[in-house]
Automatic annotation (TrEMBL):
This is G-family ABC transporter. The chain crosses the membrane at residues 425-445, 465-486, 539-567, 579-604, 647-669. Its main location: membrane. SUPFAM superfamilies: P-loop containing nucleoside triphosphate hydrolases.
Amino acid sequence: MTIVTADSTSYSLSFEVENEMRKESQRSASLEEEWNFTHKDVENDNVTRSNSIIMPKPKEPMHLTFNDVCTYVPAELQVPGIVNTVKKLAKACAKGDAGKVPERQILHSITGVVNPGEVVAIMGPSGSGKTTFISLLAGRNHLRTTGEILYNDQHKPTDKAFKRQLGYVSQEDVLFEGLTVFETLYYTAVLRLPRAMTNEDKRERVSIILEVLGIAHVKDSIVGGIRVGRRGISGGEKKRVAVGQELLYNPSVILLDEPTSGLDSTTSLNLIHTLHDLAQAGNRTIVTTIHQPSSRIYQMLDKLLLMGQGHLLFYGDASAATDYFATIGYTMPYGMNPADYFLDVASGWSGEAKDCGKLVVRDPQLKVLLGALAANPHRRPGDDLGHTMKNPKESEEEKLQGASYVTQMYVICVRSMKDRRFERFSVDALGTVFFMAVLCGILWWQKGVGANLATVTGASDVAALLFFLISFLSFNLLFTSIFTFPNEKTMLLKEREAGVYPISAFFFGRSAADVPLDTTIPICVTTIIYLMVGLKPDVVAFLLTMVVVLITCFTAASLGLLIGAACLNLKRAQSVATVVMLTLMLTGGFFVQNIPVWLSWIAYLSYIAYAWEGLIHIQLQGRIPECPATDDSCAMLTMGAVKFDTLGPQIGILLLMLVVFRAGVYLALRFGAKSR
Ligand SMILES: Nc1ncnc2c1ncn2[C@@H]1O[C@H](COP(=O)(O)OP(=O)(O)OP(=O)(O)O)[C@@H](O)[C@H]1O
């Protein structure tokens, strides 16, 4: 389907024709209804003819009510860890208030109603509680909160099933830097739109969103960022992509935290204009925090929710705010932008202009203003609004929300591979491993041929090479893998909060995405070294070597993922990985044979030891000279073969470790990946 411009009168016709075609193709009735809107609808709605009107309408309008919302944070720094917890408890016991955490109130009794079709702007100075409040409306804040937030008088924002109907754009752009704009929106569409929709329709919806948000011209540009080391689309375009991700599944409620921050005034105006149109044309409920709107943006707002130090200073029609503040003694100076004036009032800067145009601090603690507000409260629109309680049953379509489990895994896998296409097979990454492979080949050139193995020195050279091969490959993979989950943590948390997929789908999809890298590089490196060093010229030995190397690499990668998933913090993950890796290498049997008894158990955890023993078994068993009883370095060579007579146990133990590490990754993600 072609995308039509808003000014074209032919768009209604083309949509009707499209709808007829949809009926013929027997798609679900509810989906058709969603798209079945005509030019007449638009005229009746009396809205500006911007691109927003080509968006389908959401299913159900939503009233939002928040009543007496109060939020508290711990008043003291909460440092995690056993020592700090014990110290804190001891201190509290000494004071006699054990169990009580001193708290600071950051939201004070915020009350109001937002109707469908309205754009409500939350304004206030920095630190006044805007982000805290909007994240509560989105069910994404886990601070202690009292009061009630309800949608249509029945849905709490934290209800898992309801979260899918809320669009939430956070202050930071959470996007995959390695994807293009189209890919970003398309994969979101596949994950979040009903599985009953065809792929073509999902693409079409993405195209509509691109048009609506004015980013169609950059659809094939990469998002870009520091991680991928490439400059991509601009900050404003990123913000619009983030908004587009939420608009895609057409929620009835859209909540945005500072969508205009970092945008120039015209781009901000365009974005608010689009939101305004989306609210009016689709009867959507839109709440946005906004820092310092221009007077033109301010005129476009339906309602203003003004906050100061966590208190609600004003909630009502944006156009009525100036008059109301004048009635309580806060008259706006002539010609001033109302938004600027209200921010001054909320910050305590509300006096008359003095010398040099400076303002005086009239009430830094807002006490006078709060007193005036209490004496003459503003009647908030909607306070007396009687809206009917609806009790809609979960429809068949809702049950089919989102992609199937297999599709979720597939999309997570493909999206992840594409996101890392610049890093994974980059010249730097490939250059490093192939340089090391060729260097090894040169240093150990033909050391593995039969004649060289006849001496203890020659055999120990090969044993050293096998140890280096296994350590180098697993070191490389382990340190690549620890970045995976810390890097994707914000995206994982965002999508988990929105209930886009279960953690197991992410786990399997993400694990599958690593398979190409975890296999291609080890296979190439091992083949280069095998041929250059002249290891056992036997197909079975070559294949067995490859099997041991690959299982070891998967095990190392799993250990890296486990460390990354358990820490979810890059610095800590790097420290832990260094300690673990060096310990496993040192106890692997190559450097030290006589490990103190009380430490000897660590040797049994060293996957490097099992892998090395396996390779020695394949390459050196029966090919090395008999060792004199007193020759320790010779005994070292046979060590791999003495533990087990066959190769099976080494492979079995490596596989067992692989399964245990992977299960650990799943559990770490399941119980550790939570927003705090
Ligand atoms: N998890 C938390 N722990 C401690 N203090 C918090 C927490 N969350 C919010 N606060 C405090 O609550 C107050 C309101 O913060 P919030 O981020 O909501 O303000 P804001 O109006 O969005 O500010 P800005 O415009 O600068 O983003 C601040 O004093 C902040 O320090």
